[in-house]
Amino acid sequence: MDRAQKKALQKCHLDLLDSLNPEDRVVDHLYSDGILSSDEKAKILLPALVKEKARELLDVVPRKGANAWESFISSLRESDGEAHVELAGKLETMLAQVQAGRNPRPDRQADNDGSGPSRPQYNVTSPDWLGVGGSGSSSSGGDGSQLSVRVNLDDNREVYKMSSQPRGLAYVINNKNFAPSSGMPKRNGTDVDMKALDKLWTSMGFEVLVLKDQGGGDMRYQLGRLAKLDHSGRDCVIVSILSHGVEGKLYGSDGDLVPVDELLDLFHNDVVHKSLVGKPKLFFLQACRGDYFDKGTDMADGEVQQSIEKKMLDDNADTTIDGKLQSIPSASDMFIGYATIPGFVSWRNSERGSWYVQCIIKTFKECAEKDHLVDMMVKVNQGVALEFEASGHNKQVPSPIVRLTKKLYFRPGYFQR
User: Fold this and answer.
1) What's the pTM value of the predicted model, to 2 decimals?
2) Which candidate in 244, 268, 359, 372 is catalytic?
3) Average pLDDT, integer, range 317-336
4) Which residue stretches of 34-81 are H helix?
5) Helix (H) or strand (E) holding 67
6) Residue 244 a catalytic site member
7) Catalytic residue among 12, 236, 288, 359
8) How far is C-alpha 247 from the chain's CA centre?
9) Catalytic site residue 288?
10) What are 371-408's pLDDT values in tens digits?
11) In this structure, what are the phi and psi dihedrals at residue 367, rounded to the nearest 5 degrees?
12) Pairing of strands 334-338, 399-402
């Protein structure tokens, strides 16, 4: 499926869970079309509850090829249930709206045609400093373009609000043991990272949930659920994932490769619970992104502390600002911290944990009271790059991606009275 089709499925996810019955010829149709394998068919039909069967199906179908969408729509229309026909109509309407860049949300109280109320168009004016005069209607392109939602930004335009108690929810996914069929070795040392992150996020005022040995479907479900929770009274969300990985994907403990973008898409401002729109969503990913080794380059002058490590390969929220409506991109207010650059390995020590997490812990403990997140992550880059080296002169440098629109200070110990 392409990105727009996946987005349409995601927006209709709750309706599909409520009304979809995979046993009503849907799975058989997909199997006869060659979309599902016999093993996948059996896995989908295994759970006792219909909703769990639907969840299994919705986990598999988006990862299928170009013919999956048409086959799925056909399976709904050709089944015996009227609710399935309505779902097909709703999905097709949603896809058309996504492709037109309207950024719709499924209206679960709408009439049976699934179209729901039409969304008004808003005019936006370019700020003076941008050097673009005049105003125009807000828009976004087709598949793959950025969509926008309306949101109330914090009173302080420069700094994210970080004073709630608790600060927010912090998930730590620790994949240590992998199914033999995956071919992935145990990630010795990852429990050190898990315990250190649990302690760090707790000290920062977050409620921490540790999830161990999560399969691909488990990771999708847990993070999808997190994105849809009511975050009223919380200012931030943190997701830390410790696992094996390759470029663009993370391993579930069952060997399922989960695209990182698929997980990040769950937290876009146009699909998360309205209480999370415009709030910072932080991701820290300790995993390899390939199998290349960075041999480093000699640097003239300056002292570099080197600690030789044992070589272990990883291993709709409508509100106002000054009386004006504000629109933000769907993919903003996110920080994605990768432990290494694309194509390269990430290093982990069996006793002290990964280089990346070690530096995060050290830097945040020393600097979180005075420095904002991006400045701290530059220091993390410096620490990993200069203070660690594996046998064979192997080096590593993290690769943060910043989509935040304000500075983020954790301000540990400070809570709004």
Assistant:
1) 0.62
2) 244
3) 63
4) 38-45, 50-60, 68-77
5) none
6) yes
7) 288
8) 16
9) yes
10) 999 999 999 999 999 998 887 888 999 999 999 999 99
11) -125, -10
12) antiparallel
